[in-house]
Amino acid sequence: ILAAADLSGLDIDVPHFEFGVTNRTPEFLEKFPLGKIPAFEDNTGFALVEGIAIARHGKSLTTKQNKVRQSN
Question: Does pLDDT of 70 surpass 70?
Answer without folding.
Answer: no
